[in-house]
Amino acid sequence: MKSHKFILVLPALLALQTAFAQSSKLTLSDNYPAASEKIKITYNPAGTPVEGKKDISAEVFYIDGKDYPAVDVDLKKDGSVLTGNFTIPATAKAFFVKIFSDDVIDNNNDKGYVFLVYKGEEPIQGAYESKGFILTSGVGSYMAKIKTDKDEGFAMFKKESELYPQSEKLYQANYYRLLAGEKDPASIDFVNKEITSLEKSEKEKDVMMAADLLKWTKQPAASDSLLAILRKRFPGGESVKNIAHIAVLREKDIDKKDSLYQAFIAKYPEKADDKEAGLDYMRAQLASGYLKKGNMEAYEKYAAQVKEKSGLAMGINNVAFEWAQKGEKLDEAEKLSRQSLDFVQESIKKPVARPYTSLKSAVKNSQSSYDMYADTYAFILYKEGKYAEALKYQQGVYDHNTSNNTETNEHYVLILNALGKYAASKQVIQNAIKDNKGSAVLKDELKKAYVGLNKNETGYDQYLASLTAIAKKKSLEELIKQMISQPALPFALKDLDGNTVSLASLKGKTIIVDFWATWCGPCKASFPGMQMAVNKYKDDPNVKFLFIDTWENGDNYVDGVKKFITDNKYTFNVLLDEKGSDGKQSKVVSQFEVSGIPTKFIIDKNGIVRFKKVGFMGSPDDLVNEVSSMIELANGSELVQVTGK
């Protein structure tokens, strides 16, 4: 981060600059919006990403340091613009407005529509740091695609500190973390003085902050030593409680988890008006764990204690689906799956706004969960031979399947073919394959539908080949638009056997670098597809896969990485990322500017990064097809065929 120099500006002038820094596309009825004030919003979609969209929506996210409420704004057309109203809560310090249509968001050229709350023409206490929180915490990015801006966010935190030096800050930890990364002498001196002062405090949270600052300034031993002292000074404090809490959540053995939970609630009994979700989550974990183990008595015991039943539904769904896949306990699986649907239906009927979640978003999230659980329920009914009933549920799931999810399509066509609805099945699969969403199951079911309609398989291979060709061409055309060209920075890391593997040693080959961690769910979900890709290219000496394990917790993670790879029989060339400047396992992942995992890079034979792909959603077949296409484009062969250049 850059060093910052600040010039004090008259508050009214600074407020005016902040108010008019917003895009003219979105304006408020008051340039100095105040707490409890009713505000009219005016939005002109012309020239924005949502221009021409029929259903343009708005949400307002309030930053208050506590409840983080979000509300829907009913936009109405007024000539060429859209207008709506909302009332700022009395506790809000700042807010941002999200304008969107389905998944398309107008993020105001990365800056978002961010506003401070004022008293008169001056921002209220907490306004500047709240904007800093929006820009640096990831909240603005996650909710409204506002680009993270550490420099601007740091400036906001510093401004708040200058204006209110003695007051307790809402986001002191966020500011200190940024400040700890500064390298200028003034910042270093300030941080060291803060550590010394906080260590002596009689407040537990102050001492915890000092320990965090020591950790953030690369003094882990001193941080650990202070934490040990802290726990002795405050044996009944939050630090000790947090350790016990985390221990319950992380314990894998269900009986040990139960014992830890009982000890926890004995020491920290639940209060009647307690809104803390942690205990409920523990109980949901215990219920799901006992269910998976087959201990129905213990499951029923803890399931009855879970207050927020929708939080229990996911665990129930996962167990029911696992049983259905194995074709076992189908009667019990059906009852459990039905229970998960009942739980989530209740949250659809009676939605509750939560932090960062408006009522409409709550309903949308619950509907998404319902579709997931209904897919499981329909699949169980299919396994039981209840095809007509299964179709009633799967039809709704398919109708909402705007992303052409492969598993949803698979379950839908299995049911359609079982009912002899071959024409409908064929159309679904044909569309999926053309969209490059084919899979082995879909191709098998396509052949059944084809034979069912034509009474023989004559011409099937040619028909399938034509669909596959369309899919590949479409995939390549889309991927070409995503191609980049930037030099891959060199690295050399140890593999699981202690051998050093360098990027330089692989020059002349196409390299797939996949950043992952053992705790990362999407990473692990992607690995069956990545194993298929490794298998596909195992005999090609010019293609190499490197799986860089990174961001693991603690220091003794290597054995866990080895066990994970061995237990799952993956034939991956795993490299271990080294410690970075932050003291964590982050050296190369930071070098590649990775913000989330899994992230894959495709590097061509000249050492140029041609693709960067973040995250995983889809099926193993989808993934291996995409990786294969990226490899071919990086090699240049398919690029010539598609573009003719």
Keywords:
single chain, 645 residues, alpha+beta, eight-stranded mixed beta sheet, 25 helices, 13% strand
Distance between the termini: 42 Å
Q: Please, what is the average pLDDT?
A: 90
Radius of gyration in whole Å, from Cα? 28 Å
Structural class, by secondary structure, is: alpha+beta
Q: What percentage of the residues does DSSP assign to strands (E)?
A: 5-15%
Number of helices: 25
Q: Given the C-alpha coordinates, what overall shape results?
A: globular
Strands side by side in the biggest sheet? 12-19-18-15-16-17-13-14
Largest sheet, described in full? 8 strands, mixed
Please summarize what this structure is.
With about 650 residues, the protein is an alpha+beta fold. It is built from 25 helices and 19 strands.
Characterize the structure shown.
Helix content is 52%, strand content 13%. The chain is of the alpha+beta class and 645 residues long. The longest helix is centred in the middle third of the chain and has 25 residues, at 359-383. The chain is globular.
